[in-house]
Write a structure and sequence with these properties.
36% of the residues lie in helices and 24% in strands. It contains 17 helices and 18 strands. It has helices at residues 14-22, 24-27, 38-45, 61-69, 83-93, 105-108, 111-116, 131-144, 178-183, 231-234, 251-262, 279-287, 294-302, 309-317, 332-343, 386-403, 419-431, and strands at residues 2-7, 29-35, 51-55, 73-76, 96-99, 120-122, 149-161, 189-193, 196-200, 210-214, 218-224, 242-249, 272-273, 329-330, 352-364, 367-378, 412-414, 437-440. It has a seven-stranded parallel β-sheet with strand order 3-2-1-4-5-6-17, with helices on both faces. A seven-stranded mixed β-sheet has the order 10-11-12-7-15-16-18. A two-stranded antiparallel ribbon has the order 8-9. Strand 15 and strand 16 (367-378) form a beta hairpin. It is globular and about 70 Å long. The mean pLDDT is 94.
Amino acid sequence: MQTILVAGAGKSSIYLIEYLLNNASRNKWKVIVADGSKEAIEEKVKNHPCSEVAVIDITDSTQREPLVEKADMVVSLMPPHLHIHLAKDCLKHKKNLITSSYISPEMKAMDADVKAAGLMFMCEMGLDPGIDHMTANQIIHSIERVASSITSFKSYCGGLIAPSSDNNPWHYKFSWNPKNIITAGADGAHYLQNGKEVTVPYEAMFDNCKKIKVDGLGSLAYYPNRDSLRYLDLYHVPEIKTFIRATLRYPTFCKGWQAIILLKLNDQKDSIDTTNLSYEDWVKQKTGYESGSISSHIQNKLGEDGDSKTMEILSWLGIFDDVKINQGNISSADILLNLLLQKWEMAPEDKDMVVMQHEVEYMHRGDKIKMTSTMVIEGESRDHSAMAKTVGLPMAILAKMVLTNKIVPPAGVLIPSMPAVYRPVLTELKHHGIEFIETVS
């Protein structure tokens, strides 16, 4: 019997765990699900006979390491900074590892040792990063076989609310880790535009977001995602002129979040005593309020007029309300997050939506060709979300294919850019409704 250790039973884990358990009996697997919350694990495994519950503190090596030692495969959906604990155990006990997160500097530093051990640490194996890498490389490799050069590559992805469940002025609800929304873009962004490197600081990230057209949805706004340039070599397109990876939102969201940044309401480093402090008091304290109405003060601060969409959506959040916070000494980011958890919570029947679109321009026999490849997927419900499906299934499929010898695991700290991995995984994802529609013009 083979053993799979799944670390993490949060929002994005349900499809991954269900897939592994659905395949467990025929493959003689035991699936151990480890998390700090017994309730979260039990919600996912539902007393499946091939499952085992492990309520642990993932940072405690005495609880974590024995599970890694007896596993044949480790799959981690833990927060990014916790993967390294599992990675060190996997290296020590010679176990393959799959994660959905970006390769951290600490993980990257393990590459030589992981290769020497003949192990696969496949990172960025979820949605974005993950499906984007696999489909992008599939497109790039197919174009390179017939074209002289790829001149532009733009990749967009966003976790959004489905139109049928879109009932707030931000056009957004939480379908994944809420804390990631608070910190999105905090490190700025770096990309290539017409042969020139462009750096965008956090303060300007959401300012005047550009738009793209998505069939059936109309216009969506985008902001650049982290350091796109680190993928130039990984995608093997060193001579490309434009290369950008970006995150999709509805245009209104970008306007509102730019205001949040300018007002410093998502500051993670301050400390606010919220005892008997209202949301209005907090905003006044953070923005240098002196006199007059809070609305007029914020309008002047943002350079907005009283009827602006930005002021409307800020007011809807409740940040100008005389409602007490009373949460002790916490940061502005935590105050904002607690408010958003109330405002952006998905109802049980709500559906989310994942949109991914690649736009590739290349030369073929002297003609400039543009290929657009688009995926739009709606979730089934709050729990069975499109986000959970697209993050969890690629990881689960790779785990299955390695354990059943359908894929020979490549060695090193990697992303899924190689045909031996992306071809079979993308083929199976199509059977689950995760596929792209391509147009060429």
